[in-house]
Structures are given as C-alpha cells and as structure tokens.
Design brief:
The chain is an alpha/beta fold and 273 residues long. The protein has nine helices and six strands. The chain has one domain: 3-Layer(aba) Sandwich (Rossmann fold). Helix content is 35%, strand content 9%. The longest helix has 20 residues. The radius of gyration is 20 Å and the shape is globular. The structure holds zinc ion. The site of zinc ion has 5 residues, from helix 2.
C-alpha cells in the first residue's frame, strides 16, 4: 500500500514527492474529555483515521499526504470536566501558520486543514482568511462531520448529526479502539440537551462552558453505538473528504472577473507581476 503518512516517510522521499504537487492534509483535533466512556484522544484518533483513509482513497487521482495530527486544539469549554489540554487561540493560529509555512518552504502548495473537533472550526477558517492573501499556497479547510453530514446521518438511529461522545463518535471508537471504550453503562449515559450551548437569540452567539449542555460530558445518545456503525461512518467520512480533495475546483485559482479597465490590486502574492 502506498505510504501516505508524512511521519513514516524519509526526507528524500518527501523531497521527491513535492515535485508531484500532492495535497498535504494537516489534521487538527483535540485532547479533551469525551464523557465517562471514551478516551480523551477520541477526536485525535478519529481525525487521523479519516485523513489517512481519505488520502489513500484520493491517491490514484491526486497524491495526498497526511502530517501528524495537531492534537492541541481549542477546548476551553471542556476544561471544567478535566482531562483537557488546550492552546490559546493565538498559539493555535501560530502553530498552524508555522506548519503551513514549513510545508510551503518544502515546495508543497495545496494544503488541507482537516478538522475533527467543533471548537476548532472558527479559528481554522480564520487562519485560512489570514494566510490566503499572504502566502503562495492554496488553503482549504474541512470538518468531516459537516462534509459528510448527509451520509453520516443515514447511519445514526438516535441522532440526526454527530455531537460529542455520542452515538457516532462512540461507534467509531468501538471500531478503532474497542479496548478503550467502556461499554458497561452506555444505556445510562447522555443525553444532554439539544446542542445549543453556544447560542443566543434566534441565530446569535454566546460563549458558555460545556457543563451548560450536559452533566456527563456527553451530548447525544451513545446507547445504540456499534462498531459496525463506526466503520460505516468512517468510510462515509473518508469518501467525502477524498471527493473534496480530488475535485479540481477545490484547488483552482480564484476567478478574477474584473475587466481589463477595472484596475485595482492583486489578491494573491503569486499574482503580483
Ligand atoms: Zn469528539
């Protein structure tokens, strides 16, 4: 099987691969509490698996590599439950900036931030906004739970979407790390209230800790989680990310619909003439 994991390749192999203009996935995740039944690495383990499977699936159409997971995420809201290791927003953005810049210096140009933790989404998009006009790379960002939401929903019985330490995440971990899942009391865990601890008004935002959502650290219903569902969710997620990677439109340069007379300024550093 073709090796897709950056950390398992040798430097000269990575130098040679840069010439093929592969996509490089930087998985970003968390180490945070996942209820009484799942390990704190849940998002990191799932994010790694989705990225590696997606890279293998995409490879024939578009070579794709996966860096080690950035496990240090934004999880202040989970801190009250313990077990949670976090970065500040500023550090998180600097870490991603430095990793993207490292890849750029080695000649890689198409970079996908592949996220498996809800708390990272806004910052992930922010780093794209910040770096895109500044660096001669194409940055895309995705969260598997949303990119594959429709397919994932078909495998869930008690939830419509992935939540936290829920039917979906518990199923995936039962497939990947069965020895680390405590299934002794799944029927009595959950369910928390409807996901909405970060909302106000009709469509507005307010920060709150996750203890506002749930007393157990779980949001969703892990009662009917199974390893078979987990495998199906993983495959659906990898398929969706692979489809995004192999879609040429994901990496195409932005259109510039200004007419010749419009003038203005370039929008990317590599378009400066
Ligand atoms: Zn999670």
């Amino acid at each position: 099987m073709t090796e897709v994991e950056w950390s398992r390749l040798k430097a000269h192999e990575l130098r040679a691969l840069a010439d093929d203009n592969p996509v490089v996935i930087i998985p970003i995740a968390s180490i945070e509490q996942h209820g009484p039944h799942l390990p704190v690495m849940t998002d990191t383990r799932i994010g790694h698996e989705v990225a590696v499977r997606a890279a293998r699936k995409a490879y024939a159409d578009r070579p794709t590599l996966v860096t080690p997971v950035v496990w240090h995420g934004l999880s202040e809201h989970h801190m009250p439950f313990g077990g949670t290791l976090i970065l500040s927003h500023e550090t998180f953005r600097m870490v991603l900036r430095d990793l993207v810049t490292s890849l750029m210096r080695h000649g890689f140009r198409d970079i996908l931030l592949s996220n498996s933790h809800g708390g990272n989404i806004m910052a992930m998009q922010q780093i794209c906004d910040e770096l895109a006009p500044e660096l001669p790379v194409t940055l895309a960002a995705t969260t598997y739970a949303y990119e594959a939401a429709a397919e994932i929903a078909t495998h869930l019985e008690d939830q419509e979407t992935l939540q936290h330490a829920c039917e979906g995440e518990t199923s995936v971990m039962m497939h990947l790390e069965p020895d680390l899942v405590d299934t002794s009391d799944l029927a009595n865990i959950g369910a928390g209230r409807e996901m909405g601890f970060l909302s106000a008004g009709k469509a507005s935002y307010r920060w709150r800790p996750f203890v506002h959502q749930t007393g157990t650290g779980v949001s969703g219903t892990p009662t009917r989680a199974t390893a078979e569902k987990g495998e199906a969710i993983l495959q659906a997620s990898a398929d969706a990310i692979a489809a995004m990677i192999t879609d040429p439109d994901t990496w195409a340069a932005p259109d510039d619909r200004r007419g010749a007379q419009t003038g203005g300024v370039p929008f990317r550093p590599d378009t400066v003439s």
